[in-house]
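Posting this for the archive.
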Amino acid sequence: YPPYLPTSFGKVTLKKDQADLLTRRMEALLSASRLKDYVDAHGGKRVLKRILIANNGMAATKAIMSMRQWAFLELGSQSELEFVVMASKDDLEANAEFIRLADAYVEVPPGKNTNNYANVNLIVQTAIKERVDAVWPGWGHASENPALPKALSEAGIVFMGPTAPVMHALGDKIASTILAQSSKVPCIPWNGDGIMAEIQSDGSIPEEPFKKACLQSYEEALECVRRIGYPVVLKASEGGGGKGIRKCTNDEELKVGWEQVTAEVVGSPIFMMQLCTGARHLEVQLVGDEYGQVVALIGRDCSTQRRFQKIFEEGPPTVADKDDFREAEKAAQRLAMSVGYRGAGTVEYLYKPDNKGFYFLELNPRLQVEHPVTEGITGVNVPALQLQIGMGIPLERVPDIRRFYGIDPNGDSKIDFLEDKYIYPDRHVIAARITAENPDDAFRPTSGRIERVRFQSSPNCWGYFSIGHSGAIHEFADSQFGHLFATGPTREHARKALQLALKNILIVGEIRNPTEYLVELAETKEFKENTIDTAWLDKLIAEKAVNVKFNINDMVFYGACLKSFLHMKAAKDEIVDGIKRGHLPLETTLSSMQAFQVEIAYNSVKYNFQVTCTSPDTVTLSINNSSIEARFREQPDGSVYVRAGERVAQISGVEEPLGTRLRVEGIATVTFPKVRDPSELRSDFNGKLVRYLHADGADIKEGEPFVELEAMKMIMSLRSEVAGKIHHTLAPGAIVGAGDLLANLTLADPSKVQMIKAYTEPFALSSGGTANKQSASASDLLSMAGPSITDAIQAMLCGYNAPPQFGPSSTGTAGVSIVQQIFSHIDESDSASVSEALEECCKLLATFLENERFFAGLVGGDETQTIKRFQGEPQELLNKIVAHTALPRATAIVTAILRSLSDGPVLEGEVSSLPKLLVEQLTELAQFPGAGGYASVKLLATQLLVQMKKPLSLRREEVHSMLINTPRKELEKVANAYDTERRMYFGLDLISSMFSDPDSTVRSKAAEVYLLRTYRGYHVDDIDIVDSSDVVSGTPAASLHLMWTFSPPGVTSASRKGYAIVVPDVESFESLKKSWTLPAASEISDLHVLVAKVPGDRSAAEHEKVVSALAAKCQDFMSAVASKLDQKKAEYVDVLLAHHGHNPSHLHYVKKPDGWTEEMAYRNMRPTLPHLIELAAVEANYTLTPLQHGRVFAMDLGLSKADKKSEVVFARGASHVLLTTDNFEETVFNDLLTSCDFLERSLLHPALDKKHPQSQVFLHVVPPIPSTTNRDLDYLRVLFGNALQRFVADHSSRLEQLRVSTIEMKVWTSSSPPTPVRLVAFKTGHWEALGFQEKLNSSGIPIQWTNVESGAKADCLEQVKPAVEQQRSTKRQIARAAGSTYIYDFPALIRNSLTKMWMSYASSEKIPDNLVDATELALDDNDELIEKELHGGNKIGMVAW
């Protein structure tokens, strides 16, 4: 305790707040005592404890740090000093570091420094209000304004700098130069040559010589330059830090320079001096006390400058001899002593190495930014030295100064600062300024947020920064926000240490910084050899001689990676945010996240990458038929690791108004500009528009400045890249941001504008590895590691695309082909190979189940409750939505897996029992709903479970046994039976495999069952075996001949003849060309050639090759036997090719004017399917392009033959499932779901790319409906309407997406003969069900339709369509092509919604026939509103109901 406090207070009870208060007061007393003891012990006069920092940024940060450090080292506590700072709103919002360091802050007005840090009155009032002992001015702002020390002196507050008169005399560059040349200090030629003055008693110089040395106008400057000659430097005496100074080499530059200097430092006196070329900028650090002593703390070399702004500073100066520099120090000391200089100051010289001459430049009466260089070589804490000088401590008593001279730090011996020698430093220090400037754009200042700065100090490199985490550089701040200092025993060691530090610093944010440029600058030959001068860097910048070295393709690639990552992240964030707010993502949003284009422009070359998202963190970037895979990993700091092949890079960057800024850690920072319109003149940075340099409408030249902006307290000119006529868009004083439009330009010669060229060369990274070629073969893919293929398929099941080399992803063919290839390479004799395949299947099925289990549970009414029903996080739901959006592709892959399991060698292999997991997965898939797109997966899983119970070999045996044991008269009953197992027993793949059985009975029964199943729904009389000797002997290649009489469905008399011949193999088939005797019948309409055994391969690709080769042979066969067919008046020939392991192939031939040709559109259809689904009627009006054909369905794109432009997708199928009045509604509902599934798949066909055709669904149920007669026709219409109403209520949005306009169904009553009924519903009129009884001709083709309600008859199928629908059809198609909904469909949509609500709340109640009555409002001839049924005939662009 201090002696004036008692050592004991006795026993006193205090409350906690009282105790805390007492503790703080005691600590303050102790602190004040320690500080006072120090001042007294070192000969000081006053204690300065509470200090106002009248500055911000780097200056304020460094001052607090340095003085706190001194307090801790000398006094043992940082709390000995209290710091109050001024803080503008801009600095507060920028999270400035100095505010955090201070003990208290006072908020001051925002904006220009004249509002705050340079406002003398504000500083003084703040100092008084805060009761501070002293004010530390720093540099810039008010640090050189004599009014500040004068006002503070009058207020009794210490100013930590020179007195007002001395500051005015020496701080003013003009006055100091007059005093210097009056003191015989060499000066370079200037406008004040020969002017002499002596310092007056108050420390000033007379007003007359001072004014004489000032330039008052541009004309005076022009007159002066005629005397001293160009080049010259125009300077504001109150400027500094690169502000208020311009180099001028001609009259035009002098005029612009005059305007800029006067604008940057308003009201400052202006002078001019000759530019001393080939000179170095050396300076001496001075500190004077109030006793007339001045110490020179060696000096610094600040020759690395651009626009007179220092970049590198170093010390001690090595370019000058020690003795010569010592003389310069003494001259500076004498000058300062002659005026009684107090505080820190700097005398700047220009040094000419060729003649070793020093020339006085100016004396800065303040501390300078680069003072830490002096600290590094002298060990003197300069801000703390300023504090001690302010306390009245003599220089010779300051411990740091005494250490500098190598004497006892606590002694009191005298020091002759002019004659005594200090200890010359044994180290070299080089400093680098870290600024918010763009080195790619002539170091223009930038502003914006700084997220973080990462810098690791080391023993030979340290630094400090004026911003903290999540800080910013605002438009009114100085551009410098950091300073690095490197030291070493030699200049070369220090240089390398600085380069390492610059390479390791990381600055992330919106601003640009020159760290990479500085690394390259320090590596230049001139800098390393120390042969530079003050003009060196400006020359390098002008010539763009220093560039950060990098491989262009590497940076372009990483730029594309950055843009891809930012795009994906933004899309995901938007979707997740929408999910949180209850909105599901649009399909377009999801698709744009999966595949998109990225454009990178660099050096007038444009790189267009196609980006494909192949997993949550992997993309493939494709360009010029090559691709590179990149994997991303985001780090907590926002940077991204990118892995491409064997290389990994850390990248970061942002999208800016002018382009994409990319930083690749350890390589470079590059800005990829957006492709700009040369007729738009835009700002490159944030700032304020000072003035336009040309009148509105004036002509400007290429490269000519057109505007001046103020940024970072400097006036910057922008130049036009092309010539033209300028048109202003803003007014002076406007605040602008980077990328803002400043002016428009009418181009003088558009042809001279540089064009951006597309990159067309092969793309390779610098490692030498070229990008992967696209469309690699499947066999090439198999050479990849197994897991990589599985991973790719799993990613596709999760909704992501396959890499381009796998093929197009949208249809699922990529995954399907790989699945097929994997299974085709299984060795069935190798149990390990089979087990591995099964394991991979389990992985893929598990992925599918994980993704779809949730959505499968929603089918049946809860499809709209996705968000409400999901229990996980929004990101988890997004992952599932992404996967579910690609359900058609996923089901294609899964069905390929299931079919491969069914048809391939796995189930026939050596595995004694299948994995339990696979059985469980198939069981779960079999329980999926038949709706929602899962029908094919469900069916195959069900069949596979049965197949697993009865392998193919066992099923063959059972079928074989059944054919032997079943009497011929019962074959028809067996063939027409329909259940899952029975259908599997008599599948055409099994039946056709029996055509080559050694047992003739089995062959004949198999052929008969085949024909009975083929002609289901037809009236077929007994099938007879032809055994006449002429036929048998005349056709030695045949093993069986069959004849029958038949008629199409609905035709009573069996008048058509059918004939089938079975041949054992392809060779026998070809021999038919030479020897084939047809039966004696005069007419045979339908012929079937059944080839019992065709060589093939399990591979789908090989199978297609075999079929194509056989098709060519079949065409030759048809040409050879054409005359025989014509003799029998044949109309149709079906050639069946039976394959082992595949469904049989069907080739359909018809007689045309140019001979017998194959109907390619019908290939692989069952022979009777085209008739059952009435394709001929469709082909009468449309030219069909097959989209997808199966054994019982056909998906075709029809182009109208009438207008040659209208297109319709036809989904037509036949069903042999028994339909009853009890299961009618449920069956129709499920059949419509299946039809929609088929439609969804077909719409993915490339032929429909960017097309929006309408869709029509037609389903023919062939078996007659039991117990129905002609009296039930309207009842069937009602059942159809109920089923349709339910389906529309549940799936109206799906119908909209699929653009279904018509749904038709054909059924038969069980009357004798059966009556065909066509049930039709159109989108117009809320899908109202219509029923028509059909009249057939002798060929079973409908020729008349009778409405079952009204009895109205129609002789053309188009006539059954209401006139309303015919009027609206074309307009609806136009609306849908535009991505819109046709206006007249809205009443139906409202009705669908109400129907669904009705079913939700009152499912047992009958839905009223008309939930919605919509009457349209129209204008009559007098433009009056009337109610009218227009039904789409409105020609006015407004519809109202």
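Confidence is low (pLDDT under 50) at residues 1-12, 773-787, 908-912, 979-984. The first helix runs from residue 16 to 41.
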